């Protein structure tokens, strides 16, 4: 089953899968009821320092990707997160949600690529 990413503000909401927020900070203007989340795994998101350094500036994205992948590799919560994703993918789609306006240069894109590499046989 596919591992998808979606902006949490997108309408209509894709409910076809396990919905997990991968931002460290709750998205503004979204109620917990309307988010319709199955999980919020904020410890897998970039650190506050990395997020503030990146500041969603596309020219910093290549370096952000390198730094975030290093954070992921060192993250003690990574094995639990990967096990959860792998288990949920065995039963259906997984939709990782993010709040960033830029749908191309954000942590969910990096995380999706990282997970797909980790889960390859």
Describe the secondary-structure layout:
Elements: E1 3-7, E2 18-21, H1 32-35, E3 39-40, H2 48-54, H3 61-74, H4 78-89, E4 94-98, H5 107-118
Parallel strand pairs: 1-4, 2-3, 2-4
Protein name: Uroporphyrin-III C-methyltransferase
InterPro entries: YeaO-like (IPR052552)
Pfam families: DUF488-N3i (PF22752)
Major sheet characteristics: 4 strands, parallel
* Integer count of domains: 1
Based on Cα principal axes, name the global outline: globular
Counting DSSP H or I runs of 4 or more residues, the number of helices is 5
Work out the number of β strands.
Answer: 4
- Uncertain segments are none
Strand order of the largest sheet: 1-4-2-3
Distance between the termini: 15 Å
Strand percentage lies at 5-15%
Which percent range fits the helix content?
40-55%
| Oligomeric state | single chain
- Secondary-structure-derived class: alpha/beta
Give the C-alpha Rg.
14 Å
Order of helices and strands: EEHEHHHEH
Mean pLDDT: 94
Protein name: Uroporphyrin-III C-methyltransferase
Organism: Secundilactobacillus paracollinoides
